[in-house]
Amino acid sequence: MTDLLIPVGGLVLLLILLVLLVTSRYKVAGPNQAFIITGRKGKAVLNPETGQLSTDLSGQKVVLGGGVFVIPFVQKQATMDLSSRRISVQIRGAVSGQGIKLNVEGVAIVKVGGNADQIRLAAQRFLSQQQDVEPFTQEVLAGALRSIVGGLTVEQIIRDRAAFAQRVADESENSLTGQGLILDTFQIQDVTDDGSYLADLGRPEAARVSQTARIAEANARQAAEQAQIAAEQEIAIAQRTLALKQAEIKAETDAASAQAAAAGPLAQADRDQAILLEQEKVAVRQAALTERKLETEVRKPADAERYKVEQEAEAKRSAEIAAADARKASTIAAAEAEAQQARLSGEAEKARRAALAEAEAIEGARRGEAEKARRTAEADATRAEGEAQAAATLAVGQAEAEAMDKRAEAFANYNDAAVLQMLIEVLPQIAKEVAAPIGAIDQLTVISPDGAGALPRQVNDNIVQTLSMLKTSTGLDLEALVKTAVGKAAGAPAEVSSAPTD
Fold first, then answer.
1. What is the pLDDT of residues 276-317, one digit of tens each?
2. In this protein, which residues make up the domain named Band (predicted)?
3. Claim to verify: residue 341 and residue 401 sit in the same structural domain
4. Residues with Cβ < 8 Å from 124, sequence gap 6 or more?
5. Does residue 6 fall inside a structural domain?
């Protein structure tokens, strides 16, 4: 058993070693790596131009992104880095086509070519010194930059950097491709000079742009100021409208406050005036009652007595006239009878005439007595009527005196308030009479700097002159009475009470 295990263990160990050897010699390339496997013999190649034989590079196997088994002791593996390299390029003092010295800075992206031929070329030159790829690329690009700058003007370099960079890339492409390198991109970062040419080159455009900017700024500032002025005008108009509205509201409020403040005194004055009016009505009714009493008790009985006397006098006069007429008729009849008897004699005519004269004398006496009686009756009636009228007038005067006493008693109770009430009642009548001539005018033309506003002042002046003439002629100072009454009313308003009436 032991003898059997030893060969089996040795075989297993051999297999393990074989697996480890195969595993260690199998290589897999990364995405940015290229394996170059050497160890095979290249083929002989005849150059048709020279007729010489040379060995090609087919013996160098290139592996990209795959795996390969490297035979120990026979083949050798080398790794080439395919990563891109960022290379900065700077040149100083490069002379342009105008003789201006420029400083140019650029950046290039370079990598090893992606096919087997380019990888073999790069491996032959940079495999053992891959860090030299950057210095080599910088030298190639710097030379291309200087050669391109020398054939261009400063304006072309500044204004069309993309074309400038493309020309540099085209110029250096052959040199880099021959080394197995590829220029992915090249960009110009900055172009400067040691003098002021570039600064002066941009001054006209900068001045134009600055001028345009200043003009635009001035226009914008002008537009902003105009807009601000317009906004301020709108604000001022709104403030004026608000002030007018506030003034209108304040005027209405003040008017309402003044009306409310005057409501109490006006109401008191109205009550006082109503009391006085009621008292005056009572006095008028009392006077009317007294007059009706006089009419019933004095005037009508006097009229009846006068009518009775007149009727009696008229009846007496009529009776006396009738008696005189009868006597006259009898006397005439007697005289005619006597005259008839004495017609033949001359004494008959004489007797008739004497009788007629006597009858006329008697009639005249009777008529005189009747006229005297009539006149006496009329005198008695007139005296009775006068006595009745005197009694009626006395009664009316007594009633009016009593009414005036009642009113004076009421005025004494009201004191200055009654006087003020009388003045309040009289003053509108005075003003009405003063303004009556103006009110009768149909059409009026006012020539005055004050316009129609002078008319109220003229009416007021007329009232003042009327009060002044009243004071001069009668000694009654209405203005002083008004002021005194108003002052007392303002200082200590008196309570108003109605006077008792009978």
1. 888 888 878 887 888 788 778 777 777 777 778 778 877 877
2. 29-220
3. yes
4. 180
5. no
Which stretches within 74-132 are classed as H helix? 116-126
| Residue with tokens 């100072």, as numbered in its chain | 477
DSSP 3-state of 41: coil
Which of 184, 201, 218 corresponds to the end of one domain? Answer: 201
236's tokens: 């001022």
**What is the DSSP secondary structure assignment for residue 466, as one 8-state letter?**
H
Q: Give the tens place of pLDDT for each residue, 104-137.
A: 989 988 888 878 787 888 887 887 788 888 888 8
How many residues are listed for the chain in this entry?
502
Give yes or no for a contact between 313 and 377, defined as CB atoms under 8 angstroms apart. yes
Beta bridge partners of 96: none
DSSP E strands in 178-326: the ranges are: 181-193
Range of the domain at 29: 21-81
Non-local CB neighbours of 79 within 8 Å, separated by 6+ positions: 29, 33, 34, 35, 36
The tokens describing 114, both together, are 């992606």
**Are 311 and 431 found together in one domain?**
no
- Does residue 67 come out as left (phi exceeding 0), alpha (psi in the -120 to 50 range) or beta? beta
**What are 17's two structure tokens?**
């070693």
Q: Whole-angstrom Cα distance, residue 82 to residue 84?
A: 7
Specify the residue for token string 């070329």: 121
Residue 368, both tokens:
């005189």
- Establish if 345 belongs to a structural domain: yes
Same domain, 53 and 100: no
User: Cβ distance 283 to 406 under 8 Å?
Assistant: yes
Q: Rounded distance, CA 390 to CA 397, Å?
A: 10
Tell whether 491 is covered by a domain.
yes
User: Does 341 share its domain with 285?
Assistant: yes
Residue 445's pLDDT is 64
Mean pLDDT value of segment 338-359: 63
Instruction: For residue 150, give both structure tokens.
Output: 């020398």
Give every CB contact of residue 213 below 8 A, 6+ residues apart in sequence: none
Tokens 């204004």, residue? Answer: 159
The DSSP annotation for 178-195 comes to: TTTEEEEEEEEEEEEESS
Instruction: Reduce the DSSP state of residue 141 to 3 states and report it.
Output: helix
**Strand pairing of 44-46 and 53-55?**
antiparallel
User: Which pTM value belongs to this model?
Assistant: 0.36
The domain boundary residue, chosen from 201, 218, 233: 201
CA distance 402 to 396: 10
